[in-house]
Amino acid sequence: MREITYLEAIREALQQKMREDDSVYLIGEDIAEYGGAFGVTVGMLEEFGKERIRNTPISEEVIIGVAAGSAMTGMRPVAEIMFSDFITIAMDDIANQAAKIRYMFGGKARVPIVIRTAGGGGTGAAGQHSQSLEALLAHIPGLKVVMPSCPYDAKGLLLASINDDNPVVFIEHKLLYKNKKYIQHVPGEMYEIPLGKGDIKRKGKDLTIVATSFMVQKSLDAAEDLKKEYNMDCEVVDLRTLRPLDIDLILKSVNKTGKLACVEEAPVFGGFMGEVASQVTEKGFDMLDAPIIRIAGRNCPVPYSLVLENEMIPGVERIKSSIKKMAGLSQGKE
Amino acid sequence: MREITYLEAIREALQQKMREDDSVYLIGEDIAEYGGAFGVTVGMLEEFGKERIRNTPISEEVIIGVAAGSAMTGMRPVAEIMFSDFITIAMDDIANQAAKIRYMFGGKARVPIVIRTAGGGGTGAAGQHSQSLEALLAHIPGLKVVMPSCPYDAKGLLLASINDDNPVVFIEHKLLYKNKKYIQHVPGEMYEIPLGKGDIKRKGKDLTIVATSFMVQKSLDAAEDLKKEYNMDCEVVDLRTLRPLDIDLILKSVNKTGKLACVEEAPVFGGFMGEVASQVTEKGFDMLDAPIIRIAGRNCPVPYSLVLENEMIPGVERIKSSIKKMAGLSQGKE
Amino acid sequence: MKKVKGINKASKKEKFLDIDGHKIRDSFPDLGREEKIGILRTMYRIRHFEFQTEQFIIRGMIHGTCHLYIGEEASATGAIAAIGPKDYITSTHRGHGHCIAKGANLNIMMAELLGKKTGYCKGKGGSMHIADVGAGNLGANGIVGGSIGIATGAALTCKMKKNGRIVICFFGDGAANRGNFHGALNMASIWDLPIIYLCENNVYGMSTPVKEAFNIKRISDRKYAYGIDGITIDGNDVTEVYNTISHYASLCRKGMGPVLVESLTYRYRGHSKSDAQVYRSKEEVKKWMEMDPIKRYAGRLISENLITPEDDKQIEKEVISEIAEADRFAQDSPFPDPADVEEDVYA
Amino acid sequence: MKKVKGINKASKKEKFLDIDGHKIRDSFPDLGREEKIGILRTMYRIRHFEFQTEQFIIRGMIHGTCHLYIGEEASATGAIAAIGPKDYITSTHRGHGHCIAKGANLNIMMAELLGKKTGYCKGKGGSMHIADVGAGNLGANGIVGGSIGIATGAALTCKMKKNGRIVICFFGDGAANRGNFHGALNMASIWDLPIIYLCENNVYGMSTPVKEAFNIKRISDRKYAYGIDGITIDGNDVTEVYNTISHYASLCRKGMGPVLVESLTYRYRGHSKSDAQVYRSKEEVKKWMEMDPIKRYAGRLISENLITPEDDKQIEKEVISEIAEADRFAQDSPFPDPADVEEDVYA
Ligand SMILES: Cc1ncc(C[n+]2csc(CCOP(=O)(O)OP(=O)(O)O)c2C)c(N)n1
Ligand SMILES: Cc1ncc(C[n+]2csc(CCOP(=O)(O)OP(=O)(O)O)c2C)c(N)n1
Ligand SMILES: [Mg+2]
Ligand SMILES: [Mg+2]
C-alpha cells in the first residue's frame, strides 16, 4: 500500500478533481512555475496549462474577489493564499462578499470557492508568517472552515470542499506538508470526507482531547506518552472542520470521559476553542468532572527565535504537563 | 447637571483632547464638512481645520497604515472607520502591522492609535453595515478593544484610549449615539476610565449578566423586568473593555450569584463570549450552579427586513426568556 | 491593451464620432424606433422608481438607508442597452438604476425595499443588496468597490468558458481609490479579460469632492497605470454612453481586454437617506439639472420626429402606473417569517 | 504634483544630467572623498553581511527564512546616502541592505538573525522585522507592501510637525500591485506629503516576472494615476541613484509632494532560503552580474583617482573583518529567556 505525504495528498486531490471537472481551476501567487511557496502545485502547470493554473500578481483581495465572481458565474475556483496571515488582506472579499452573498441575495446565488492557505508556526517565520487565524474565519456565518491533520483527511476533505457549494477556507499546516513521520496510506481514487464530521483519532476512556490540525498529531504523541507513563487513556478527537462543528461527537466523548482538554495553536485568548468549551459547558455541563482546560498558544504574536517560538506554540511536553495537572497526576507547571 | 448623549460625550472627549495635545488628529472618510456618517465630528473642522481633521478618500487600509506610521513617529491619531464592517478592509494594517509592530521590534516602537468605528445593527442597513466584529479584533495580541455602553463611559474610555500607548479599537454603537433614553450626566472636565476594568452597572445577587455595548442597556431593561415580574435580582456586568478582560470582576460576581448569562450582539458561534464563558469555566467551575448560557445573535448575517433583524439580534424579550428558562422560571422558548 | 481589428469596417453610411479624442462608431442610428423609445422608457422607470422610493423614505417605510440614482439615469441605461441579456453587470450601493436597466421586475424590487418575502432577496438584502443573478445582475454591494473583484471574476468566467459574454462593472468615483480597483484592473489587463470598468463620476463620494480625493483631472487617465484603453464621456448623454459602450463591448468580445470608461454625471439628491448637503451649493445642483439626461434625450427623439411631445407624456404616464402597481404589490406582500432567519446562509 | 521652485540655481560649475528625460542636477561631485569612499564601504558591508547570512543559511543556523539583497546594493546605498540621518525610511522583507545603509550596527543585526537577545528585536522579529527606529528605519516588513501605509504616515508626521524631514519608502515591483500602494500614493499626492516611493524593480516578484504581472513597460508610469512625478533609473549605478534621490529629496523638502522612483536592479540569489529558480536562466543572471554595482562604482572611483585598486581591496578587507566581528558577537550572544515570550506585546 502506497503511503504519501500530506502535500502529495493535497496535490493528488487537486489533480484528480481538475481532470474530472473543467470548471475547477487554481488561482494564486507563484503557483505556476514555482509550484507554490510550499511546492503543493509543482508539476500542475505542465499538466493543466496557464489558463487553469492562474498565477497572479500580489493582490490577495483580488484573488478572492475574482474567485467569488467566477464562482457565481459557473466556475469552481480553488484560490491559494500563500500564508494564512495574508487572509487579513482579503478579509473583506472573504467575510463581506463570498460568505454573505448567498444570504444577502435571499439564497439566489452560490459561491463555490475553496480558499487553500498555509497556517501555523514552527518555521521561524515570525509574527506575520506563522499565525493560526481560524477563529477569525469560523466566526463568519456563510463560511466553512476545514483544518486537516493528516494525508488521508487532507485528500478527502479537500475533495469535499471543492464539491461543496459554499465558500470553504481550507487551512493546511506547514509542518505537515512534507513530514515523513506522518505519511499514510491514501486511496488512489477520489473520495470525500463529509464537512461537519469530526473524527476520533485515538480511542480512550479517561480524558477527551479535542484538537485541530498539527495539534492533533502532537496530542496523539502526548496521549501515547501518558498511556505509557501513567496508564492514562486519552481519547483524541480531531475536529477536522471547525465550522460546521461536530459538537455531538465531542459530547459523546466527554460523556464517556468526563474531562475535556482543548488544544489549539492560536493564542488562547479569543481562540476557537472558546467556542468548543462554551458549547460543551452549555450542553454537557453535567458530564464534566473537572473544569475544561485549553492548551493553546501564548498571548503574543509568534516570535522568531526558536527558544521563544517553542514556548509560544504548545508542544507535546506542554500538552502532557497540562493534562497531568488537570488529571491530578502532578503539580506540573502549565 | 447637564446630561448629554453618547455622541456628544465622544465628541467632547475628542475636542478636549485635541485642544490639549497638538499631536492628536483625526483621520477618516467624510469626517470634515459632513461631520462623519453619524455626525460625531460635526463642527470640528471649523475649530481644528483641515490639517487636523483629515478627510480621506475611500481607502480604509491606508487610513490605518497612515495612522500607524504617524503614531510611530510621534503623532497620536484617532482614525475613524465609518462602519465596523469595513475593518475587514484594513485588517492587515490593524492585525499584522499596528498590533504586532511593537512586539516584532522587540518593544522598540510605540503605536498609539485609536481606531474609532461604529458597530452593531438595528438600523436596517443589512449584512455589510451592521456587524459586530469585535471577536476578530479581541483575538489579536497587541490590540486593546473597547466597547462603551453609555455616555459617561464613552468619554472616559475614549480619553483613556487616546492616552494609551497601544493600538486601541474603540467600537461605538450606532443605536446609542443619539438615543435620548440613554443621556447621562457627564463631567465637563477630562477624566479617564482605565482600560481593562469592567463595571457593575446593576447590583444583584441571583444571576450575573455579562454584556457589552448596547447589550448592556438591553440587559439592564431585562433585569428591571425580571425584578418586577419575578423578584429575580440580576447583576449586570459591563465589560467595557474586551481586551484586556476584567475576569476578576466577573468571577467575583459569579461567585456571589452562581449563574452566568453572557449577552452579545454578534452571532453566537465563535463570538467573544466564548472566551468569557471559557475563562469562567476554567477559573470558576466550582462557583457555577448551572451551565453558563450565551444569548447572542443568530448564526447568520444581519438581515435587512425589520422582522428578521429583530429576530437575529437579541432583544430584551429574548434576554428575559432565556434567563427565565435558565433560572427555571419558565419553559420559555430560548 | 491587446490590439484587435477594429469593429466591422465602416460601410458608406456609417458615421464615426470623436468622443474624448477617440474614434467611436455612431451605432445609435442602428437602433429601431422601439429600441430608442425603450431607452427613454427605462430612464423614466428608473426616475419614477426612485421618486417612489423617496416617498417611502419620507413616510418612514424604508427600514434601512437608500441611495437614489436620480439624475444619473443615462449612465446605466445607455450602457446596459449596449450589451446583451446574457452579459453580466455588477452594481453598487446606488444600484436601483443598474438593476432596472438590466431588466429587473419592478414589483419584486420594490418588495425588497419594503423588506418583504416576495422581494429579490426575500427581504434579507434590501436596497444595497438587490441582485438579479438570473438576468445577469450580480448584485448591488454595500461595500464601496466591493463588486470590482466579483465583476473581474465574472469576466474570467466569460474568458475561460469562451461564452462570448462580457461584463460591465459599475462603480463610483469614490470606489476608484479603493485598493481592489487597482489590483483588479491590473489583473484584468494582464489577462485581457472582457470587462468594461464603468466609473460613474458624479462629482462626489458621499461628501468628498472628486477634486479633493484625486490629484488628476480625469479618472480615466488611470488607464496609463494598467496599459489599457480609457475614455471620459458625458454620462448624461444617453446616446454618447450607448455609442461608447457599444464600441468597447464589441472590442471586448474580440479580445481587446478591459477598458476604463469614466461617465460624468451628477446625483440630484443627497448621498443617502440623511444628508444635509453642506458640501455643495444649490446653484451647482441647479446647473446640473439643466442638463437633465431624460429631458435631453426626449428632446432628441422629438426633434428627430421619432415621438411627439404627447408620446413622451404618454410613456411617462405608463411608467407611473407601473410604479403604482409595484407599490401596491410591495405593500400587499407579506413580511418574511422570523423563523426563517437562519435559512439561506449555506447552499 | 505641486509646482515648487527648482533646486538651487545652477552655479557655473554645476552640471545637469538627463536621466530618463528628466533634468537632474549632478550632485555627486559635491561629495567629499571620504563620503564617496563611504558609499563604496556601505555597499561592501551589505554584500559581505549577506555572504555571511548565506553561510548561516547553508549551515542551518537561521531558524526562519531570509531574502538576500546581493546585487541590489546600489539602490539602498545611493538612495540613503542622499538623505539625512533624521529622515525616515521603511524597508521590506529584503531589508538588510536598507538597514545597513541607514547606519545600523552590524553586530546587533546579526544577533537578530541568529535569534539572540542582543538583536535589534531581542530575537522576536528576525530578518523580516529588523527595525532601527532610533536611526529612522521604521522596519523591515514580512507583508509585501506592508510598509507603504506606514511610510506614508511617517511623511504625514513630517508635514504636520513641519520638521523638515522626508521619507523614503522602499518596496519591490511585486508590491506595486498591492491595493495599499494605490491608496497610499493617491493620499500622499492629494496631501503633498514629502515622500519618495522607491520601487526596487528587480525583474521578479518571487517567481513572477514583472512582464507577466504588469501590462506596462515602466512601473514609474503609474505616476499618471496620481498626478505625481515619476522616473525610472539604473538602480545598479549608485551615482545615478544618489543624484536622483538628492534631487527629489530637495524638491520634497520644498513641498513638491511625493514622487515615484523606479530603480532597475536584480537579485543574484534565489528569492529566499529555498528557491530552485526554475523561472529564470543562468544566462540572465550572468548578464546582470556583469553590471555589478560594486565593481562599477569601485571602477569609477579608481578611474577618478580617488582610490587605488589596493585601497579598494583594503576597504573590502576591513569590511570582512567587521563582519567577522559581528559573526562572533552574534554567536556569543545569549538566546532570549522563554519566560519573556509575552513581554513587549503592550507598551
Ligand atoms: C469600503 C467602504 N467605505 C465607506 C463606505 C461608506 N460609503 C458609502 S457610499 C460612499 C461614497 C461612495 O462614493 P462613490 O463611489 O463615488 O459612489 P456614489 O455614492 O457617489 O454613487 C461611502 C464613503 C462604504 N460603504 N464602503
Ligand atoms: C501580502 C503578501 N503576499 C505574498 C507574500 C509572499 N511573498 C514574499 S516576498 C514575495 C515577492 C515580492 O516581490 P517584490 O515586491 O518584487 O520584492 P522582491 O522579493 O523581488 O525584493 C512574495 C509573493 C507576502 N510576504 N506578502
Ligand atoms: Mg460619487
Ligand atoms: Mg521584485
Q: Strand count, sense and closure of the main sheet of chain C? A: 5 strands, parallel
CATH superfamily of the largest domain in chain A: Thiamin diphosphate (ThDP)-binding fold, Pyr/PP domains
Give the domain tally of chain A: 2
Strands ordered across the widest β-sheet of chain C: 3-4-5-9-8
Distance between the termini of chain C: 39 Å
- How many E strands of chain C? 9
Shape call of chain C: globular
What fraction strand of chain C?
5-15%
Structure annotation, total helices of chain C = 11
- What share of the residues of chain A lie within helices? 25-40%
- What is the number of domains of chain C? 1
Architecture overview:
The complex is a heterotetramer, with two copies of chain A (334 residues) and two copies of chain C (347 residues). With 334 residues, chain A is of the alpha/beta class. Chain A has twelve helices and 14 strands. In chain A, the strands form three sheets. Chain A has a seven-stranded mixed beta sheet, with helices on both faces. A five-stranded mixed beta sheet of chain A has the order 9-11-10-13-14, with helices on both faces. A two-stranded antiparallel sheet of chain A has the order 1-8. The longest helix of chain A has 17 residues. Chain A starts with a strand and ends in an 8-residue tail after the last helix. In chain C, the strands form three sheets. In chain C, strands 3-4-5-9-8 form a five-stranded parallel beta sheet, sandwiched between helices. A two-stranded antiparallel sheet of chain C has the order 1-2. Chain C has one domain: Rossmann fold, CATH 3.40.50.970. The complex binds thiamine diphosphate (2 copies) and magnesium ion (MG) (2 copies). One magnesium ion binds next to strand 6 of chain D.
Could you give the topology of this structure?
The complex is a heterotetramer, with two copies of chain A (334 residues) and two copies of chain C (347 residues).
Chain A: E1 3-4, H1 6-20, E2 24-28, H2 44-52, E3 53-55, H3 60-72, E4 76-83, H4 91-98, H5 101-104, E5 114-119, H6 134-138, E6 144-146, H7 151-163, E7 168-173, E8 184-185, E9 199-202, E10 207-211, H8 214-230, E11 234-238, E12 241-243, H9 247-257, E13 260-267, H10 273-284, E14 293-297, H11 306-312, H12 316-326
Parallel strand pairs in A: 2-3, 2-4, 4-5, 5-7, 6-7, 10-11, 10-13, 13-14
Antiparallel strand pairs in A: 1-8, 6-12, 9-11
Chain C: E1 16-19, E2 22-25, H1 33-58, H2 73-81, E3 88-90, H3 96-101, H4 106-113, H5 148-161, E4 167-172, H6 179-190, E5 195-201, E6 204-205, E7 208-209, H7 210-213, E8 229-234, H8 238-253, E9 259-264, H9 282-289, H10 293-303, H11 309-332
Parallel strand pairs in C: 3-4, 4-5, 5-9, 8-9
Antiparallel strand pairs in C: 1-2, 6-7
Bound molecules: thiamine diphosphate (2 copies) and magnesium ion (2 copies).
Residues 172-174, 202, 204-205 of chain C line the site of one magnesium ion (MG).
